[in-house]
Amino acid sequence: MTSQLFAICFNTSVPSDLARFWSGVLGWELSAGADDDLAVLPPDGAGYRLRFLPGPASKAGQNRAHFDLTSASPQDQRATVARALRLGGKHIDVGQLPEEGHVVLADPDGNEFCVIEAGNNFLAGTGAVGALACDGTQEVGYFWSAALGWPLVWDQDQETAIQSPAGGTKITWGGPPVASKSGANRLHLELALPADADFEAETARLLSLGATRSAAGEKARGRAFLLDPDGNEFTVTHLG
């Protein structure tokens, strides 16, 4: 059985602050679980959640992945930006041009995200989080398409994008050049398998697709710490 995208995880020194921020910006429910597990849950109960895990405070350069938030209208875009600023976000400059319609912000822990202008056809119908936009190779796009069973919805000029057959957020990779990586990523994907699935077989499948085991990962029963072909961390968890 193919593992499913369970969560997009943030490693942060301020998990509670960041959880409140993203809950407020997206209008998603804030949930506190066991062991100080903070999550923001999607409104329909389907799809992935956002998880906020204690992690190092240091940040070197731009993240390899960021959210592109959608807008229904110019007024909606302005309202999202205003809400993010009120909750502790800030404007940042990553080299965007004045004539570009998207607004670039950072959350209270410095993680970049964009609020995309209304009328973006590529993100039409995706929901509040239109895309998880990643710095990555064509190879890694192919890997994740096979790993999740999500079809490619864009594959041109070494840029790739995938989307669940059920719709929702797209995951995109911008192609080369890919920025060098220093330390663990602040954002990573968490995959999950139901309790009756063969965890070892699924781990072996992901390794056969091009994943490798992470030397930095803590060994735990029912959880694998892996790297994708671009060296990005991800985990696979056996639920139940």
From TrEMBL:
This is VOC family protein. PANTHER family: CONSERVED PROTEIN (PTHR35908:SF1), HYPOTHETICAL FUSION PROTEIN (PTHR35908). Residues 8-116, 132-237 form the Glyoxalase-like domain. Gene3D superfamilies: 2,3-Dihydroxybiphenyl 1,2-Dioxygenase, domain 1. Pfam families: Glyoxalase_6. InterPro entries: Glyas_Bleomycin-R_OHBP_Dase, Glyoxalase_6. It comes from the Bacteria. SUPFAM superfamilies: Glyoxalase/Bleomycin resistance protein/Dihydroxybiphenyl dioxygenase. It comes from Streptomyces violaceolatus.
